[in-house]
Amino acid sequence: MAHRWGMTIDLDLCTGCQACVVACQAENNIPINTEENFQQRRAIEWIRVERYWEGEFPNVKARYIPVPCMMCENAPCEPVCPVYASYHTDQGLNFQVYNRCIGTRYCSVNCHWHVRFFNFWEPKWPDSLKQQLNPLVAVRSRGVMEKCSFCIQRIDHAEQSAQLQGRDVKDGDFTTACAQACPTRAIVFGDLNNADSEVAKTVASTKRGYQLLADLGTNPAVVYLKKIDADPLPEDSKHKYFDSSQYTRVKETVAVG
């Protein structure tokens, strides 16, 4: 494939501010998560920031990890879709055809990262927000699955602009909404197949890189960089389930909101 879009997320730079979540919601016309929806576990967010705790009181530290769609090379959500609404593009993206989806939710069940969401209601926005909807992104109707697309509308726009100029897409021509909004540049987006891109250089040069649930063999396109703790907690105060290499193994979590 010519391109394989991916990103690195540096957990040492992430502060858990959730600017990426807000930017993603505005860019991709994601339905508003009201308190009623949240209490019913029907909230939708294409990228979420999970918060974990390391240590025991009073020696406690909060850890944050943004979780978008992993864009797996061998995505477990694709083969289970009976109508082929979930498929793999020639650019390494795990895509979702909303008009084809019939809402079986098989893909959501088969996603180990829980980054696919079912739209239980027809999306509604208050009058003050209706003018901010992105005209380049479809508004998904009730009854379909939706997920992170790595801002495919930005990818298409960059490719079309480059084609008109008679050149290939260059690193830095565009980025995703979450990466653009991150105040600490913890998220870096680019072409993993381009050795000169910032994201490819980061993956190749760092020794802190790892993939979430890499042992499943899905080969995600999202690479995390481990947290560097200049002031680590005493060994006797660390939670017995905590693994500094993969924060997903922490058992005790607190829901944001």
The chain-level structural class is: alpha+beta
- Report low-confidence residues grouped into runs of 5 or more: 239-257
Could you tell me the mean pLDDT? 86
Oligomeric form of this entry?
single chain
Run of helices and strands: EHHEEEEHEEHHEHEE
Sheet having the most strands:
4 strands, mixed
CATH fold descriptor: Alpha-Beta Plaits
Widest sheet: strand order? 8-1-10-9
Which bin fits the share of residues in helices? 10-25%
In the CATH hierarchy, the architecture is: 2-Layer Sandwich
Morphology call = globular
Q: What percent strand?
A: 15-25%
CATH class: Alpha Beta
**Radius of gyration, CA atoms, in whole angstroms:** 19 Å
Quantity of strands, as a count = 10
Count of DSSP-assigned helices: 6
What number of structural domains do the residues give?
Answer: 1
What is the distance, rounded to the nearest whole angstrom, between the alpha carbons of the first and last residues?
41 Å
